Amino acid sequence: MGIIPADTLSLHDITTLGEEPSLVDEVGDYIDAEERLERAWRIKRAPNDQFSFDVAIGNPPYVGEAIGADLWRQTRERYPYWESFVAPHVDYLYPFLVVGISKLRAGGRFAFITTEYWLRAAGAAPLREFIAGRCRVERLLLFRNLRLFPDAPGQHSLVFLGERLGDADGHPAPAQYPRVSIYEGANVRRGERRTILEALRDSRSSAGLGVSSFRAVVSPQELGRQSWAEVVLPRAEVERRRAIRSRPQLGHLDITEGVIPTANRLTAATASQLSEASLTAAGWPHRTGIFSLSSEEVSALGHLNTAEVKALRWVVNTADVLPYAAIVSGDADRMIYLPKPNEDEVRLDIGAVQNQGLPTTSMPALSAHLLPFRSFLLQKVETWGERRPWWTLHRPREEVVDVPHVSN
Known about the structure:
Elements: H1 33-44, E1 53-58, H2 65-78, H3 93-102, E2 104-115, H4 125-134, E3 135-142, E4 157-164, E5 179-183, H5 193-201, E6 211-215, H6 220-223, H7 235-246, H8 268-271, H9 276-282, E7 292-293, H10 295-300, H11 306-311, E8 312-314, E9 321-322, E10 325-326, E11 334-336, H12 350-354, H13 364-370, H14 374-383, H15 398-401
Parallel strand pairs: 1-2, 3-5
Antiparallel strand pairs: 2-4, 3-4, 5-6, 7-11, 8-11, 9-10
């Protein structure tokens, strides 16, 4: 046993198996340097070697997209293997799950504690595909409002356990239906947790404790890279969702996730990235909206032509959504929805695409509003290497927003 300080993600770049792993310089005296390097080599070569692990267990580092974008970009540049996991809105824990699972032998066991949202997040689609093709997910424990880490914000922790089946080789793994246990009550004091945690561990349902346990009726293998939301829903909820989808008006909707811009509003941190002239033109600090505008900020735009009125979409947030409907208030926020242009851009290099000018002729008011944010938004698309103009809505879900309006 021993600690191997290393760039963990460098230990799973199958395109550079012949290169020496990237080790931390200051390692102390607890392990011989030559032995440390040999251990790192064994981990790196695990996919092509007899050596592999029996168990992978851990709490991968949570580094959100806003903080980790530059780190993720550098990782992709240094280790080309990770390009196959590129997706919008990627958090840094995803590749760590890939590493942990990839080093297991067939039949090896894994258990990770993470946040819950990757089951549904668009950016986790490659991760879900990777797991579905190689693993049998046996248990999913969702803690919801039971805060396992008192000082950490925004939790909804998840523990998932299972078995490595081997590489998919282009063929999906057999369908598996994990056991799901969910705590649906409020947060409790530390001394009251034991019985709840025992019920979750033992996969017992208890209305008094707020614990619901059931066998999933949808398999991760059936869904692959799609959202796994239905994996953690009981049968009645799955059937209700399918009934909604079967209605002619709603059959083509993705009802799991909508538009996710990462530049909704200026904050004190992001405002520091703009010049004083740009901040003044934007109306900072009295007006903070970029793509998401309050009703007052919409009024401040002045006269809007027909195209601009159409581009301002009502925003429905999670707080507005009842179990199967949404109520939008009269003064709800609007989102400036300017999707990526449809014209053929194959002959343009990525820089030319990103720097395309605003549609000032057809949308003068919205163009004037967005222009002060150019440097900030351009940095966004450049960081993610996206082939889209800087003024387009950041990572839209066109299949959700572009559906025709349905009145009933």
